[in-house]
Write a structure and sequence with these properties.
The structure holds 2 protein chains of 2 kinds.
Chain A: H1 4-32, H2 39-55, H3 60-88, H4 93-115, E1 129-132, E2 135-138, H5 139-161, H6 163-173, H7 175-180, H8 185-211, H9 218-232, H10 238-258, H11 264-278, H12 286-290
Antiparallel strand pairs in A: 1-2
Helix pairs in contact in A: 1-5, 1-8, 1-9, 1-10, 2-3, 2-4, 2-8, 2-9, 3-8, 5-6, 5-8, 6-8, 9-10, 9-11, 10-11
Chain B: H1 3-32, H2 40-56, H3 76-97, H4 103-123, H5 125-128, H6 142-145, H7 149-176, H8 178-188, H9 190-195, H10 200-226, H11 237-249, H12 254-270, H13 283-302, H14 326-329
The chains are: A mainly alpha, B mainly alpha.
Chain lengths: 295, 330
C-alpha cells in the first residue's frame, strides 16, 4: 500500500502524457484512416526541434509551442507529400502500414545520423516539489498534468462546439457523405493532421521533460502504450483514448510498483493484446462498429 | 584468392543462403497466403535460442551465462528442435490472433508481440541470459570433421546452400500445388474462398505454422554459424528487412524473393558492413536503415509488385471444344 499511492502519482503523470499523444494519434486515424506508425518518431523529431531551440537559449515552455508548431507542419507535409500520394495511387491498407513503417525507419535514422547515438536533455528547472499526501510531484510534472487537461478540454470544445469539429466528426464517420454535404474534406484532413501533429509535438516535449533524457528511439519506444491507449478506447474515439490513457498509465506504474519495474511496459502490451482479442472495437464503440475498414 | 577474401565470400554466401530460407518462409505466409506477420523475426529468434540451448549443455551455477532447458544434443537434432519450437509458438500465436481480426489490428498484434518478446527475453535473465544473450555456442560437427576453419566455412556454405535448396523446392511445391492455388484465392478474396467451401481459418493457421517452422530452422542454422545470439540481434525492424526482400523481389514469386534477398539483407546490410567508417561509428548503419526505408517507399511507388511480379496462373490444357451437336446438322 505504501508503494501504491506514489505509483498512482506516477501513473497520473504517464496518463497525462499518454492522453495528449493518444488523442492526437486517434484523431488523425479516425479522420484519415491511416495507421501512422511513424507517430512515435514524429514525437522524437519534435523533441529534437525543442532541444535545438532550448539550447539556443529559449525558455522550455516556449520550446513546447515551437515543438507543437513543428509537429503540426511536419505531419501535414508528411501526409500531403507522402501518405496521401500513396493513397491516391491506390496503395492498399496493408501496404500503407508498411509505408508508415518505412517513414518511421527513415525519420529515426536520419535523426540518429544528425544527432549521433547519445542521450540529450533540456535545460529546464524541474521546480520545487509539491506533496499531496504521499504523492510527490515536481513543478514541471504538475505543469504537464495541467497542459494535458487544457489540451483535452480544447479537443472537447473543438469537437462539440465548433463547426470544424462537426465537420471532422462527419468526415470520420462517412467521408463520401460528408463530401456530398458540402464539407471540404481535403481541408478537414489537413486540419486533422495539423492538430494531431501539434498534440504529437506537445507530447514529445512533455515526455522528455518527464524522463529527463532522450535519444532517437524515445518516441518509438512510447508508441505501443499510445496505440494501446487508443485501441483500448476504441480507435478513432478521442474520449475513449483519454480513458484508455488513464487505464494504461495507471496499470503500467502500479504493476511496476507491485511486480517489477522491468515489466512496466509489458502491462501496457498485455492489456493491448487482450483488448484486441476480446473487444477489438474498444470500450466506446458506437462509431467504430459502423466504420468497418475494407482490408 | 587470399584466405581473408575466402572467409568474406563464404560468410556472405552463408548469410545469403540462410536469409533465403527465412525470406522464403515469410513469402509463403505473406506473399502466397496473405498473412500479415510483423513478428516473423520472433520465430527466427525462438528457433535460434532453442538450437543454442540444446547444444550448449546443461546450465551449471558457476557458468558465465544462464539459460533453461540446457542439453547436449547431437548435430541434426538442434535444428529440428528449433523448427519444432518455432512451429509450436506459431500454433499458439496463430490460434489466438488469426481468427477474425481486421488486418490492421492483426498487424498491430504482431508488432506488439515482437516488442513484448524482446522485453521478456531481455528482462527474464534466467530464460536465455537476458540482454547479454548466449555466446560460445558450439558449431555443429566442428570437432568431428577435423577441418581447418576455412575448410569448415566452405562446408557450412554448402550445407546451408543445400538447406536453402530444400526449402525452395518445398515452398515452390506448395505454391504451385492445388493447395497453393487455394491459398492465393484466400489471399485475394477470403470471403469468396470461404464461400467455395475452403476452410480459410484452418488454412491460414497451417501456413502460419509452416512458415514459423521455416523461420525457426533458419534461425537455428544461423545461430550455429555465428555462435552467439542476443535480443539486439532480432529487434522488430529486422522483420522489415525480410519484408523488404519479399516486396522488392516480388511478393509470391519464389524466384523473385531470392533475388530480393540477394539485394536487401545481403547486398545492402551485410556487404556494406565492411565499408570504412566515415564521420563516426554508427553513421553507416543509420544510413543503411534510411536506405532500406527509402527502397521500400520507392518500390511501393514505382513497382508495387516487385522486380519479378507474380505470374498470373495459366491453364495447362486447352479448353475442350464444345461437342458439336450432331443431330442439328442432319
Amino acid at each position: 500500500m505504501q508503494q501504491l499511492i506514489p505509483a498512482i502519482g506516477f501513473g497520473l503523470i504517464t496518463a497525462s502524457i499518454l492522453a495528449i499523444a493518444a488523442v492526437g494519434f486517434t484523431l488523425q486515424f479516425s479522420v484519415t484512416n491511416i495507421l501512422n506508425l511513424a507517430y512515435g518518431d514524429i514525437m522524437t523529431a519534435c523533441a529534437f526541434a525543442a532541444y535545438l531551440a532550448n539550447h539556443a537559449g529559449v525558455n522550455i515552455w516556449i520550446c513546447l509551442v515551437i515543438a507543437a508548431l513543428f509537429g503540426a507542419v511536419f505531419s501535414m507535409v508528411l501526409n500531403r507529400y507522402v501518405y496521401f500520394q500513396f493513397v491516391r495511387r491506390g496503395t492498399r491498407l496493408f501496404a500503407m502500414i508498411i509505408v508508415t513503417i518505412a517513414v518511421s525507419l527513415i525519420i529515426q535514422n536520419v535523426l540518429l545520423a544528425i544527432f549521433r547515438p547519445t542521450f540529450f536533455s533540456y535545460h529546464a528547472d524541474a521546480g520545487s516539489s509539491y506533496h499531496f499526501g504521499s504523492m510527490v510531484f515536481t513543478g514541471s510534472q504538475l505543469a504537464i498534468m495541467v497542459i494535458a487537461v487544457i489540451a483535452m478540454l480544447c479537443v472537447h470544445v473543438l469537437f462539440t462546439q465548433t463547426k470544424l469539429g462537426k465537420a471532422m466528426r462527419a468526415t470520420a464517420t462517412n467521408p463520401s457523405l460528408a463530401r456530398s454535404c458540402g464539407i471540404a474534406t481535403d481541408r478537414v484532413i489537413d486540419v486533422a493532421w495539423l492538430l494531431s501533429g501539434a498534440l504529437c509535438g506537445i507530447a514529445g516535449v512533455v515526455l522528455v521533460l518527464n524522463t529527463a533524457t532522450f535519444s532517437e528511439t524515445t518516441g518509438a519506444g512510447f508508441l505501443v502504450p499510445i496505440i494501446a491507449a487508443a485501441v483500448l478506447g476504441g480507435i478513432g474515439q478521442p474520449y475513449g483514448a483519454m480513458l484508455g490513457a488513464i487505464t494504461i498509465g495507471l496499470a503500467g506504474e502500479i504493476s511496476a510498483a507491485l511486480i517489477s519495474p522491468a515489466y512496466k511496459g509489458v502491462a501496457a502490451f498485455a492489456i493491448l493484446i487482450v483488448v484486441l482479442l476480446v473487444r477489438p472495437q474498444g470500450i466506446l464503440s458506437e462509431v467504430a462498429d459502423a466504420k468497418e475498414v475494407a482490408a | 584468392m587470399t584466405d581473408s577474401m575466402q572467409f568474406y565470400i563464404t560468410t556472405l554466401l552463408i548469410y545469403l543462403f540462410i536469409d533465403i530460407i527465412g525470406v522464403l518462409g515469410l513469402n509463403l505466409q505473406f506473399g502466397v497466403a496473405g498473412i500479415i506477420n510483423f513478428a516473423y523475426i520472433v520465430f527466427v529468434a525462438v528457433g535460434a535460442y532453442t538450437a543454442a540451448v540444446v547444444t550448449l549443455g546443461p546450465d551449471s551455477p558457476g557458468n558465465f551465462q544462464h539459460y533453461m532447458f540446457g542439453a547436449n544434443w547431437p548435430f541434426p537434432l538442434p535444428i529440428l528442435a528449433g523448427g519444432a519450437t518455432a512451429g509450436l509458438l506459431s500454433l499458439v500465436v496463430g490460434v489466438i490472433s488469426l481468427r477474425r481480426l481486421r488486418s490492421d489490428y492483426q498487424a498491430m498484434v504482431m508488432l506488439v508481440l515482437s516488442l513484448i518478446a524482446t522485453l521478456v527475453a531481455s528482462n527474464w535473465v534466467g530464460l536465455v541470459n537476458g540482454p547479454a544473450g548466449l555466446a560460445v555456442i558450439p558449431q555443429p560437427l566442428f570437432d568431428q570433421l577435423g577441418l581447418s576453419s576455412l575448410e569448415y566455412q566452405w562446408v557450412y556454405a554448402v550445407w546451408t546452400g543445400f538447406l536453402a535448396l530444400l526449402t525452395f523446392l518445398f515452398v515452390q511445391g506448395i505454391t504451385n500445388s492445388p493447395l497453393g492455388r487455394t491459398l492465393r484465392a484466400m489471399r485475394d478474396n477470403d470471403r469468396a474462398a470461404a464461400a467455395l467451401g475452403k476452410g480459410v481459418v484452418g488454412l491460414r493457421l497451417m501456413i502460419f505454422v509452416v512458415g514459423g517452422v521455416i523461420a525457426g530452422i533458419s534461425g537455428a542454422v544461423f545461430v550455429e554459424f555465428i555462435q552467439a545470439w542476443s535480443p539486439g540481434s532480432w529487434l522488430y525492424p529486422e522483420t522489415f528487412v525480410f519484408l523488404a526482400a519479399v516486396l522488392i523481389g516480388g511478393s509470391a514469386n519464389n524466384w523473385g524473393v531470392m533475388v530480393g534477398t540477394l539485394l536487401v539483407p545481403v547486398g545492402f546490410l551485410e556487404a556494406t558492413r565492411f565499408l570504412p567508417p566515415i564521420f563516426y561509428t554508427g553513421f553507416i548503419e543509420a544510413m543503411q536503415w534510411v536506405a532500406v526505408g527509402l527502397l521500400i517507399l520507392l518500390f511501393l511507388w514505382f513497382r508495387p509488385n516487385g522486380l519479378f511480379p507474380e505470374r498470373p496462373g495459366r491453364f495447362r490444357h486447352k479448353p475442350v471444344a464444345p461437342a458439336q451437336p450432331e443431330a442439328a446438322q442432319q
